[in-house]
Design brief:
This protein is mostly helical. It has one domain. Helix 1 packs parallel to helix 10 and helix 6 packs across helix 10. It starts with 5 loop residues before the first helix and ends in a 17-residue tail after the last helix. The model has no long low-confidence stretch (mean pLDDT about 90).
């Protein structure tokens, strides 16, 4: 499977956008803009990861959503899976990134309960047992081709990496987390445009209302 470039997905958006509902049109426009910015960061995985994450956030976030982040992810991924009739997301995960994704799932440093225990929070002494259960669940999801479950588990780890960076818990260009950042940026660069593409192919499915809609006439 090849990457969808910014130019390719932008060209498709230009051809279809007149038929998009306004919320989807804005959501897709913003996501593609940030994906294009990420694509230029060929030598800076920190920046590429963050720009790709903003693109993902623009694609999925719903301003009316009162659920937690994990539930919002789950809803979005299930919606994508139901409309991904060709299995493009699963193929991207399995064919191109099965190795890096397995490494993510084996990496305790992007596992939330590990850090909760490190920080002395009560109730996380059993993080290793949770870690093993999560790893087994991932392998079951791969076997069952459960794309939504795979993405939920993967993005749970990517979200920890995102938090480490956004909240100042990592050093720019650090040697400590290079592999996971490079892999994370590459995984997002592959998945985000596919997600956007599926959304554009299903414009009437109700993808939610984007945050901070454009306000005119004030």
């Amino acid at each position: 499977m090849t990457f969808l470039s910014h130019d390719e997905i932008k060209a498709k958006q230009r051809g279809l956008r007149d038929g998009f509902p306004d919320p989807l049109g804005l959501r897709v426009h913003r996501a593609i803009s940030w994906y294009g910015r990420a694509e230029r960061e060929t030598d800076d995985p920190d920046a590429a990861f963050l720009f790709n994450w903003i693109a993902f956030n623009a694609a999925y976030a719903d301003e009316r959503d009162v659920r937690g982040e994990r539930d919002a992810f789950s809803w979005f991924f299930t919606n994508l899976q139901q409309r991904d009739l060709a299995g493009r997301i699963y193929n991207a995960v399995w064919e191109r990134f099965s190795g890096p994704i397995r490494m993510f799932l084996e990496n305790r440093y992007v596992y939330g309960p590990y850090w909760a225990n490190q920080n002395g929070l009560d109730g996380y002494e059993d993080w290793e047992e949770r870690f093993d259960r999560a790893r087994r669940a991932f392998h079951r999801a791969l076997t069952q081709r459960d794309t939504a479950a795979i993405l939920s588990m993967l993005f749970d780890r990517l979200y920890v990496l995102r938090n480490q960076m956004i909240h100042g818990g990592a050093t720019w260009n650090s040697s400590v987390n290079r592999d996971q950042l490079r892999d994370g940026a590459a995984i997002l660069a592959c998945l985000v445009p596919v997600m956007i593409d599926i959304m554009m192919d299903n414009p009437q499915e109700g993808w939610g209302r984007p945050f901070y809609p454009v306000v005119t006439g004030e």
